[in-house]
Write the C-alpha cells for this entry.
Amino acid sequence: MPTVKGTQISRTHVQEVILENFMSYEYARIPFKPGLNLICGPNGAGKSAILVGISVAIGQSYTERARKLRDLIRHGKKAGRITLLFDNKPINGVRPFPFSRSDSVAVSRYLKEDGTYWYEMDYRQVPKGRVERIFREIGLNPDNLLVIMHQNMIEQFGVISPEERLQLVEEAVGFQDYRRKVLEAQEKLNRLLSEEEAVTNLLRSAEQTLGYWKEQYERLKLKRELRSKKAILEREEIWARITKHERDIEELKKKIKQKEATLEELTRRIAERQSSYDSLSQQLEQERFKYRRLFYDLIALEKQRAQLEALKTVGGSGVAGKRPKSLGGKKGLEQSVAKIEGDIAKSEKEISGLFDKIVEVRVDEAISMYRREIVEREIRHLNRKISEEEEGLKQLEPLHAKAGERIPTERTPAEVLEELKYVNAQLLSLAEVSEEAEEVYNHHLEIYSQLSDRIREVTENRQKALEDVELRKSIWRRTLEKLIEEVNPLYQSNLARAGASGSVRLVNIENVEEAGLEVLVGHRGGESLVLDAYTQSGGERTVAIMAFLLSLQQHLKSPLRAVDEFDIHMDPLNRELMARLIFDSAGDADAQYIFITPSQVVFSSEAANMIVVQKVQGKSEVSVVS
C-alpha cells in the first residue's frame, strides 16, 4: 500500500453509484468493485455521465458538460441527486472515514432547479467544505487530471505546461507538502529579505539625517534666493499639472482611435471564422455520411466473401444453386473489398482533417472574441480616463491666477514637487538652526547604532533561513527524483509493449516555481521527443499519456482513479495493447479503477467488472456483465 511520509492511507472504494434525475438518467443503481471497472456502450448512451456524477458528488463544481450544476438535472425535472456508497470497513483497525462507525458510508449531493444544492453524509446534511476536506485527505481530488480524467482531458493533459503537470503529479502522489514547506521557507526568507532591505533603508536614512545635523551649522546661506526659487517652482508645478492633463488627454484620444481600428478588424475576423465553421461543419456531415455508406458496403462484401469460403469448404462449386452472387468471382470480390477499404481510409483521413480545421477555426474565433472583449473594455477604460483627466483639468482653473503667465516646462509635476520639497527642506533647516542641534545629533547617532545592531541580527537570520530553504529544496528534489527513477522504467516498459520508446524527466528542478515534468515519446523507432500538442498525432499522444498514467498508479494516493475514453484516437491494435496494459497495471485490488470506452474492448469477467450503458427511449440504462 502506498504511503506518504510514513503515514499509511486507509483504502476505500465506491461500492455503488445511484443517479436520480441526473443528465440522461431517470434512476439507475450502478455497482462497482475494487480493482478494474470497465464502462462501455455506444456514444451518447450516458457512459460519461456516470463519471461526471461521481465527480460532482465528491465536490466538483464546474464540469465540461454544464456551466451550472442545475443544468445537469434531467430535462423536465425539478431536482436531481447523486449518491455514492463507499466501503468503510476497517483496515488494521482504521476506517477510511473515521467519523462513521458503519461499514458503508453514503455521500449524496442534491441539485435543485433554482441553483441550490446541499450534501449529505450518512444521511445527515453537511457543508461542502467538510466533504471536500474529507475526500482530499484520502487523495480524492476530482479536479486533478491524474485522479479523474473526464472526456477529452487526455488531450488536455498532453498540452498543459510542464510546471502544471509536475504539480498535478505531486498532489496525486501526496508530495504537495514537500513543495508547500519549500514555499513556506521561501516566504519566510522573503520576509527576512524585506526586513533586511527596510532596516538597510532606515539605516541609510538615519545616516543621512545624522550627516544633516552634523553639518547644519555650515548651511546658513542664500535664504532669500531659496525663497525666490520656491515661488517659481510653485508656479511651475501648477503649469506642469495643467500641461500633463492636456498631454494625457491627447494621448488617450490617440489610443482610442487605435483600439477602435483593432476592434473593427476583430469583428470582421470573427464573422469570417463563423462562416468558415458553418462550411466545414457541412463538409464534415457529408463526409460522415459517405464513410457510413462505405462501411455498410464493406460489410456486404465481407459477407459475400465468407459465403464463398464456406462453399469452398463444403465442396466449392460442385453444389448446384448454392453459389452466391459476387462481383466477377473471388478475384473481383477481393478487388472490390480492397477498393472500399482504400476509400474508407481516405474518408477517415478526410474526417480527421475536417475535425482539425474545425478545431482550428473555433479556437481562432474564441481567441478573437476574447480579444474583442479586452479591446472593448480598454476603450471604455480609456474614455473613463479622459473624463477623469478633463475633470482634473477643470479643478485646476482656480489656480490659473496664482500660476500667472504660462511657464513652458517639460518636467512632470512629481519632478517639480520633488525639487520643491528639497527647497522647502532646505528652508526649513535654515529656519530652525538652534543650540539643540548637538543634542539632536547625539540622539540620531544612538538610533544609527541600534539600526546597525539590528541589521547584523537580521542578516544572520536571513542566512539561516536561506540554509533552511536549500535543505527543504534538497529534500523536495530527492523525493521527486526518486519518484521519477521508479516511474521511468515502468513508463518505458509500457511504451515498449506498444512499439514505442521514451522517458520521463524533471526540468528546471533547481527552481520550485519553474520546475516541471516532461514526458518524451518516440514511435516506430523515431527519436524520443517532448510530448506536446503539435509533434505527435492524437493516437501517439494518447498512447504516451496512458503509458505514463499507468506507470504512476502504484504511487497515487487516491483510492479511486478514472479515465474517460482512454482509447481515444487509437487504432485497433493500440486499443487492444492498451486494454492489456490496463489489465496488467490495474490489477491492484487495493485501488479502484474506472475506464470508459465506446469501443468493443473485451475483458473476461475475472479481469473486470463490466458495466454496459445503453439509451432506451431517451433514458440511460445500465446492466452489469457478470
Notes: The radius of gyration is 36 Å. The first helix runs from residue 47 to 57.
